[in-house]
Amino acid sequence: MKIRIKNLLSGKVYGRVARNHRLSKISPKVTKGFLGLSHRFSRVAIVALIIFYFGGYYPILSFPPVKSSKALAETNVQNDQIVTASFPQPVILPHVGYLSTRFSSWHPGVDIATGLGMPIHPITAGVVEQANYNLWGYGNNVVVTHPNGFKSMYAHMGKVFVSKDQTVTTETVLGEVGLTGFTSGPHTHLEVTYQGKAIDPLTILPSIPDMPASN
Q1: Residue 66 belongs to a domain
Q2: Fewer CB within 10 Å, N or C, the chain?
Q3: Quick one: pLDDT at residue 43?
């Protein structure tokens, strides 16, 4: 009798242990509330949002301070002034003429209109880096390297009188004004670069009169 009761009790205990073991493997289903959170956290989130809203703690979109933009613009102007101030002297115009096209984002130089055959001089002393024909619109052109990281380029030349690695001064004649390349009239397309970046030649050149208005 005792053995039977013992076996019976052991079976009940074993059954409970087995059921508890199976139930422990079943994940409890948690219902979702606001923003995919549980109901408890949903209530907390809603209360927090209400407090933030009425308490003034909510995000505000703002633009960068105007002072920062002004400071950046002033820095750029100062950098441009430093660059132009470091250009080698003396500086001359490549030849007499009129300013027909100014420097812009789509025109990285200036056009100085004049007569065919006008002698072209380098704007300052340097060494000829290249003297050749360019198929992409410049035609006959000469590039001169100057001290302090500057270069100047003269395009649409009719004749070229210098060669690569030749030392030139403002007295040297690089060539003559022509109509080679893409051009609608006799002029010199002049580009100036500083460390590979185009700068406005008018910031370093003597003044050039504007092209007279046609009648």
Answers
A1: no
A2: C
A3: 74
- Alpha-carbon span 39 to 102, nearest angstrom: 69
pLDDT in tens, 107-151: 999 999 999 999 999 999 999 999 999 999 999 999 999 999 999
206: DSSP letter = P
State the CATH number of the domain containing residue 199: 2.70.70.10
Q: Same structural domain for residues 103 and 196?
A: yes
More confident residue, 53 or 91: 91
86 alpha carbon, distance to own chain's centre: 23
**Residue 110 falls within a domain, yes or no?**
yes
Rounded-to-integer distance, Cα 129 and Cα 163, Å: 8
Of 68 and 87, the structure prediction assigns the larger pLDDT to: 87
pLDDT(189) > 60: yes
Q: What are phi and psi of 67, to 5 degrees?
A: -60, -35
169 within domain boundaries: yes
Cα distances (angstroms) measured from residue 41 to each of 15, 49, 51, 67, 192: 37, 12, 15, 43, 66
**φ/ψ (deg, to 5) at 117:** 85, 0
Contact by Cβ (8 Å): 121, 170: yes
Q: What is the DSSP letter of 4?
A: H
